[in-house]
């Protein structure tokens, strides 16, 4: 309560007024819901909303308006169906979609890593993990039901996002088999009957409604020519879509969740307004949705392209909403502003540069498996479809180099000519290798654009936009991961992030994956980069500052520093001797009794060997690996798959975790200042030819001699002269 009062005192008047209006509207809606006056009767729906005469032909007229839309009205109508399906069958692994669709026909889906059954009737309100039903009350009462606090609402929401309907719809599109369309409309009828307007938790989040609406839109347009899309079913679904749009327009997340939530809601409003002109509010929704997207694009993405939430899954979630709306507007022959196009191109450039050599993204920030463009199969960290869209939209051959020609999204979203031009375009490698993203604070090292390149992503960015240094908790999807890094050796991921597990599950697991211990960074005693303020929330945030970024022919350096107070700080310097090895220098100033813990999280497929005598850790992932040589005396703790959250786990998706090695290197802070250098040497097929000889380590000075495949390196670092590297006796820079 005290935190809420503090937050209220800091709110601008406009936000207080908006939130007051929101609460008043919810009360009004609850009174109408309890009295049964919020249900839309058929006559009012026909005449007041659709502008049609309410008679025996009303549903037929509505049906005809939907199915007889002009060419290029939606993506599925912008190309010749038979020709496109043939191309998809030539280019993509489409039979996997059919297998998945056949599983869905049997009622089986995979949701948030769990095998589940598609609900029916009242089970749409059932928590599929705990087996406990959410109350079928007014949506706010249902969401806040005290006896449901142990349940994670994400699971019941996820099933009602209906994104698996898109899988069925694609199967119908490609095969023409009516059984897939029949299943879609059976599910829709069942859901609508079990979830009357404003009844139950499936109406409690505007974003959930937005994602569900978009799923329905794709399913409807894919199945427009199905015999199971009757006038009765069409009217039923369109009426529910209208109710979804009405709720979203009344409950936009301007202040409560102004990032990916607001973007998803705006995109859904725009799509609904543009695609269903029969609704009386369509023009308003279309304009409101687009204006919000336009006005907020520079608030959603930094000028360097990364999303302000500092979470790469949400980066693509937000980006997918924007791209979908933009492409529809473009299909309708309407202009898109240069400012929006420029910012979205930057967002795609960030995705291109952040991608690892194995084509997956580094795990940064929260994850909830959300996809705004529900293509390209099951959950993964592979977002190449987005750069494929960008390759066509912005005519970027370097984007095509990343996406290849197997990105499913492009074959559903573009015209025949655009696809033809894309396939004829010769891809080119991106011009830059290592790249700085100053505003968001990410610094990417790589030595090539092949699938066997060495790669490191260094995080020197803020925890997330909108957080503060005071004691007032604020929600954010960013983690306490400042000065962490992720590393691939010869294309194989070795050091990765701990990831993220759940929002509403056991709190110790939720908390662990957001704090320093789950990232490749340092915990400075009891000091924190950000203080945990409850689920989603941070307070007393300390953000790092960049102290150096320098690229030369053979040497690349990034360095950052985070200050905990007037005395304590952590400074990390990342030095890449191109094509050979990394030097990581950590300098920590702390209280005399603080222990320093340096964490390393290894890919779940990696194996490790710890040699404490020679102060060396060897990791391998297949025939590629990394040697980590440490010079500071430390206690080494290795954990994998233990019961506790910190027991060695990688949470690669929501509710999904795998055992993986976590090493904690503990240095006893008997002195005020600790300097700990680390050498990290990638190897391929064999570790032979890599050795270490003389080294010297003082309080802040260091030198070491390394032999790598017949080359001798002398590396030194001092406060006075900085970094020096000799290769076979010659200075390199």
From TrEMBL:
One of its GO terms (cellular component) is periplasmic space. GO terms for molecular function: lyase activity. Residues 130-367 form the Heparin-sulfate lyase N-terminal domain. Pfam families: Hepar_II_III_C (PF07940), Hepar_II_III_N (PF16889). Keywords: Lyase, Periplasm, Signal. Residues 431-633 form the Heparinase II/III-like C-terminal domain. It is found in: Periplasm. It comes from the Bacteria. PANTHER family: HEPARIN-SULFATE LYASE. This is Heparinase II/III family protein.
